[in-house]
Amino acid sequence: MTRQLNGTCTSSVDMELFLHYSLIPSLFIILILSFLQRREHRRQRDDTSYLLGNRFGIIMPLDFVGTFSNRWSYGIAFGATANKVMFLFSEGYQPLQIPQWAQAFELLIGGFEVGLSHFPFFACLSSEFQLVSSILGFCYSLIWFAVTVLQVSQCPHRQFVGKYETLMFYWPSLLCLAFLLGRFLHMFVKALRVHLGWEFQVEEKSILETHQAEHVKQLLRTPRPQEKKKSWFQTRIYEWDPCFQFPSRMIGTIVLAFICLYLFIVIEFCVFVYVRDELDVFENKLESYITFTNHSGVLTPVILQVKELISVTKGVWVATILPASLTCVSYLFHILVCYRKHIKRLWAGDKHFLPLKFHNPASSASVVAIARYSGWQIAYILWGYLIIHVVQSLCGMAVMYGLVLPIVHNQGLEMLQGLGIGILTISIIVGLMILQMWIAASFFLQPKLGTADKQKPLALNNRKAFHNFNYFLFFYNVLLGLGACLSRLLISCLLGTWLIARIDRTIMQNGYEGADMGFSAWIGMLYVDHYHTNPVLVSFCHILIANHKEKKLQQTTKYWCLNQSAGPRVSARSRTRWFLLQTLINNPRLIIHRKLKSGHSSQESQILMACLES
């Protein structure tokens, strides 16, 4: 009765209709921020946009490549879009009625509409005019918060889970919107204090972040022996690095993936409740048939087995929700660990962890990859959860029918007998394979050349006995190869389904990695971050910009004190050579990469390289 009443509840707020109308204040906020944003280059007088002056500049929601500040605010803003992202993922949001063949365009339009409706959250967070943007962002977030609260309060219960089902869907978005309200309020107070002169205006932000400068300093320091022993958690799982920060894109992707995974699990559970109710009705019909035939019908044994199958399936499906969800949650954390590990290897010039064809990817493919990565990562996690859940349920069904149910039906001895025979068979096969290895190592290999060698050389001994050994085992290994082939197929299927959510690891074989579009997006994203956020490169650009500003303002140069000293004047060329010598002494391997003069031969460079390696 409760579910029927809850199912007939109609809210006065239509969220899809509100999404359409939210574009009006969204466009209004975008126009205001664009009017405040000045363009760096004014158009020519014959251009029609010259009439606008330098107003109406292009505003961006956030820097997807080089933003390291305000990361969690952007991540929470992404979390506020989770419900609409799930509507897009389920293809339930269709703003237009168009033919089936043009559904891709409909989804594209729906994605643009969702992005435009949530654009003010990001634009107000990243705007330079914080006093105005904080007011606009607070008002826009308050509208979304009030409408969502109204939606939840009018229809808190639904027909699947029952009580507070609507709250289960919308509480992550409410929490994110509440955080944004507090964030915009904090921005307003801070901007107001600056406007009133109570606080100093923050200086122009440098392109070099603090953690990037610390990373470069760490590279220039002499490595010291490790004093403190690392814990098990730091060695095996994760070690915090103060010289590294994840970009805002990665934080936003992980936050949105967490919320979408939670919503996906809730939706899956609602579908399970619906299917379970339908199966209960079906079981009641089967029970009525058994009662009608007084347990003497022809189909009674089959019906009992069907009822047992339904009961086991429902129990196993519920029991595997937790391990499947924990697996995907661990993948999300592991993706962050792999991102830091891979990007650091690229900073160090190490590409050996990448397949050979990805050592020099196309620039256009990398640019597209960084646009695809975040959305694909979330989709891979959601589909990966469903696939992992199905696989774990099948494994649970096998355990139930292989171990548990025989004991329930008083067939434990037969089960143990079959299990023992199976284990013994596999043990004999594995034992014979180990025996082959031992015979090969003991009789068919020549002795070690030295006492320090770890293994014998690959040189045959007792050749006649070896050929006889090889001949008689030829026919046995044909039969053994059948089992090895099936085990290869089974292991590939299990690993492929288990790692389907891991976009940082390809599940394709060597040579076919290019067919894995998710892995290609991961590699392209890494290269874009490597080329644009490499701390050494950013530090170099920071020094160039700083020197350019100093020269432009006619200030003293970096070595002004040396030029103005009381001692003899040193020429710029001599000073440069002195610093070059000091750099080469501290980093002798740089000598190899120096350009050779015409008088130096390649033989001299080879001798120099050999000296450095020694």
Automatic annotation (TrEMBL):
One of its GO terms (biological process) is vitamin A import into cell. The chain crosses the membrane at residues 18-36, 129-147, 167-185, 254-275, 316-337, 382-404, 416-439, 474-501. It is found in: Cell membrane. InterPro entries: STRA6-like (IPR026612). One of its GO terms (cellular component) is plasma membrane. Keywords: Cell membrane, Membrane, Receptor, Transmembrane, Transmembrane helix, Transport. This is Stimulated by retinoic acid gene 6 protein-like. It comes from Colobus angolensis palliatus (Peters' Angolan colobus).
